[in-house]
């Protein structure tokens, strides 16, 4: 069996563009992957046009070997675009191998260590009262871990002081309302400086916040060293990392408590499991990033099932959430379904996601999209 072809399919699902990668073998077995890097899908397609011929003829049952072949290819750009493609191809090869061998992907990763994969729910609202009400509804239907956040009437404005004040109000209020059994977190999405992050942490009473995600930019690990000295709040970092080497200082220096591995960015299941095992040796739990479609979700569930140190998988299907539509399309004839706040570990061959290629051929709708370019109130740029 050899790789016969590799194709990419950009499409629109719900409010989001997705890029599916199809790997077909000479025996007719097909595997599907999904590329990360939202809003840069066409850049990934450009890289695929360069690599298609390179992949043909390789053994699809040796995904780690194909991974090394791609990653070490002379002149290959191991940037976020290149690694998004490697991730998608690697996921597709695992799906293909599982189908060819008639086993679920988690068997290829060492076997499932759990029968259910718990998730954390994402809950957002414009005001404290509504946010707490939504969070209570999510807790009532089974979520034991919630990441709370806000919306805004001015979506392209982010004022750090306003955010610090608002979060300083709603997080303690949520803790009082929800009690101590629910884990609570917040994502600052790299938007704060060290000083701003320290001020935010200082406003958090002990026991309120169980994790703080990406408070500052991650290019400089020394910045996290400085922040680590100022707070004891557990840190969740790594959703944009594209290899074990980017995780290296954060793992070895103990700068994160939850590794936010994104299987569609980091290099697919091959690299994700390497990072997860490394984190396990350092007592770091994994809280996978999962913002995309059903293939990303399925790959993340198999990964989480097989690793010893899984905590909670990101989930956008909580009550009142408007992003659940990205998991629903006629293209996905079968996809993994939540049971309460958990994903039951699938036993179907491959990832357990079936693609209706007739629907896929009709599903154009791909739209140009840019992530919001946020500005502070003085007009200067900040991170999205």
TrEMBL record:
Domain Mandelate racemase/muconate lactonizing enzyme C-terminal: 128-234
CDD domains, A to Z: MR_like
A Pfam family that the UniProt record links to this protein: MR_MLE_N
GO MF: lyase activity; magnesium ion binding
BP GO annotations: amino acid catabolic process
Protein keywords: Lyase
Presence of keyword Lyase: yes
InterPro entries: DgoD-like (IPR034593), Enolase-like_C_sf (IPR036849), Enolase-like_N (IPR029017), Enolase_C-like (IPR029065), Mandel_Rmase/mucon_lact_enz_CS (IPR018110), Mandelate_racemase_C (IPR013342), Mandelate_racemase_N_dom (IPR013341)
The name this protein goes by in its record: Mandelate racemase/muconate lactonizing enzyme family protein
């Amino acid at each position: 069996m050899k790789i016969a072809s590799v194709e990419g399919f950009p499409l629109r699902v719900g409010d989001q563009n997705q890029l599916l990668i199809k790997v077909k073998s000479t025996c007719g077995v097909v595997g599907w992957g999904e590329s990360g890097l939202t809003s840069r899908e066409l850049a990934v397609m450009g890289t695929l046009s360069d690599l298609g011929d390179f992949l043909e003829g390789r053994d699809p049952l040796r995904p780690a070997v194909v991974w090394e072949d791609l990653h070490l290819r002379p002149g290959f750009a191991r940037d976020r675009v290149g690694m998004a493609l490697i991730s998608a191809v690697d996921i597709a090869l695992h799906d293909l191998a599982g189908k060819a061998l008639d086993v679920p992907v988690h068997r290829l990763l060492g076997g499932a260590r759990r029968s259910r994969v718990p998730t954390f729910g994402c809950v957002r609202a414009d005001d404290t009262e509504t946010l707490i009400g939504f969070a209570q509804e999510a807790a009532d239907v089974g979520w034991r871990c919630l990441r709370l956040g806000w919306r805004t009437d001015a979506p392209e404005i982010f004022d750090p002081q306003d955010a610090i004040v608002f979060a300083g109000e709603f997080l303690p209020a949520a803790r009082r309302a929800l009690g101590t059994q629910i884990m609570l977190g917040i994502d600052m999405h790299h938007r704060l400086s060290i000083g701003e992050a320290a001020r935010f942490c200082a406003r958090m009473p002990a026991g309120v916040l169980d994790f703080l995600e990406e408070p500052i930019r991650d290019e400089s690990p020394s910045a996290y060293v400085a922040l680590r000295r100022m707070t004891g709040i557990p840190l969740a970092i790594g959703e944009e990392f594209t290899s074990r080497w980017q995780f290296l200082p954060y793992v070895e220096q103990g700068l994160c408590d939850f590794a936010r591995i994104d299987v569609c960015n980091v290099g697919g299941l091959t690299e994700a499991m390497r990072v997860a095992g490394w984190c396990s040796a350092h007592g770091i739990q994994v809280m996978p990033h999962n913002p995309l479609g059903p293939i990303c979700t399925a790959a993340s569930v198999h990964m989480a099932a097989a690793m010893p140190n899984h905590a909670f998988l990101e989930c956008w299907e909580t009550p009142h959430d408007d992003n659940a539509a990205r998991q629903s399309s006629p293209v996905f004839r079968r996809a993994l379904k939540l049971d309460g706040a958990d994903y039951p570990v699938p036993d179907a061959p491959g990832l357990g996601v079936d693609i209706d290629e007739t629907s896929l051929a009709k599903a154009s709708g791909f739209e140009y999209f840019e992530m919001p370019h946020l500005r502070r109130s003085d007009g200067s740029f900040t991170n999205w």
